[in-house]
Design a protein that fits this description.
This protein is of the alpha+beta class. Helix content is 24%, strand content 20%. It is built from six helices and 14 strands. The structure holds 5,6-dihydrouridine-5'-monophosphate (H2U) and zinc ion.
């Protein structure tokens, strides 16, 4: 009897949370594709898109005729730079707490082309997105009131993304948000206990095992983490100890662009659709404190389960108790690994 063939729980060492895995519920590891490939990518320029070059946005702003990446302050920012500094502690034993939070939200257009996605942009253009992220991390992080810069991309209508034009967001703020804070804390305790980095040790182990690796190049590895919650969740990890995008050497930035493209193509090829996901980059906080053991990494959390339209829902037991998955991380990695690296729209 093998553990992984039976219901079991796996620990996420980055958060301390567990995921229930129920592999006996999957009759076949790979159910294949059941829907017609999605081929409509929309026009190269959409006169009604608020992100296309030359178009107007909310308020009176007009986008420049940009040719590479383009960054602007979000017209509907969730955080504001000048909110007054107030707090509230009330209720029995100070049960109710609130504090104001200052911050800056920006939108990053990846390309002037409305019809492209990261997976379909050339590696050179993806490199300029990586460079833009790095500059934004520096620019926002150098402000005294900013302790954390969260770079992310929300892709696809199913993820609530309002516009197919390739773009991401950056939310920079005064406090380190809960998830990165937890991951930093766990990486630091691991470092204090073992004297090495949790994610580097983990990556070295995975590279020996091989079964959860999706794609690699000379500097980066994309893998389905042992503790993945979403069916095709992946992490992108640098092989060398680096804490920020700024730490990357020029050739490593190119390697990151290469991995983003190759992973993106595999994702799109999986269900022959423009694969939806939330992707985020976790790097060092910008409050000038040391975070021993912290390692730069990216998370890709895609919602699709079985086809371009069948998604996983986080409901019931998962909302009330703990995340659960059927297909194992090993099956997902094997499926992603077996896919070609030519985009299905280019075949
Ligand atoms: P999504 O990544 O969730 O699609 O969001 C796009 C962002 O663009 C969203 O945060 C902003 C929205 O506030 N936006 C503008 O800044 N200006 C506009 O004219 C429309 C949308
Ligand atoms: Zn557009």
């Amino acid at each position: 009897m093998k553990l992984f063939d039976n219901p079991h729980k796996r620990l996420n060492p980055l958060t301390g949370e567990w995921v229930l895995v129920s592999p006996h519920r999957t009759k076949r590891p790979w159910q294949g594709q059941t829907e017609a490939p999605q081929r409509d990518t929309g026009p190269e320029y959409d006169p009604h898109c608020y992100l296309c070059p030359g178009n107007s946005r909310a308020g009176d702003s007009v986008n420049p005729d940009y040719t590479g990446t383009f960054v602007f302050d979000n017209d509907f920012s969730a955080l504001l730079p000048d909110s007054p500094q107030l707090q509230d502690t009330s209720g029995p034993h100070g049960l109710l707490q609130a504090r104001s939070e200052r911050g800056i939200c920006r939108v990053v257009c990846f390309s002037p082309r409305h019809d492209l996605t990261l997976a379909r942009m050339d590696t050179r253009s993806i490199l300029s997105v990586v460079d833009t992220w790095e500059r934004q991390y520096q620019d926002l992080g150098s402000r005294e009131e900013i302790a954390h810069v969260q770079i992310f991309e929300n892709r696809g209508a199913v993820m609530g993304c309002s516009n197919p034009h390739p773009h991401g967001q950056i939310w920079a703020e005064e406090l380190i948000p809960d998830l990165p804070a937890k991951e930093l804390e766990r990486q630091e305790s691991y470092f204090n206990e073992h004297g090495t980095s949790l994610l580097i040790d983990y990556l070295n182990y995975e590279r020996e095992q091989g079964e959860r690796i999706v794609v690699e190049n000379e500097s980066f590895t994309a893998l389905v983490p042992y503790w993945a919650v979403w069916p095709y969740e992946t992490m992108v990890l640098p092989r060398r100890g680096v804490q920020t995008l700024t730490d990357l050497r020029p050739e490593e930035r190119e390697a990151l662009a290469d991995i983003i493209k190759r992973l993106g193509i595999r994702y799109d090829n999986l269900f022959q659709t423009s694969f939806p996901y939330s992707m985020g980059i976790h790097q060092l906080p910008t409050n000038s404190q040391d975070y021993p053991g912290a390692q730069l990494h990216m998370h890709y959390l895609p919602p699709l389960l079985r086809s371009a339209s069948v998604k996983k829902f986080m409901v019931g037991y998962e909302l009330m108790a703990q995340p659960q998955r059927d297909i194992t991380a090993e099956m997902s990695a094997a499926a992603l690994r077996s896919l070609p690296e030519t985009h299905y729209l280019e075949v």
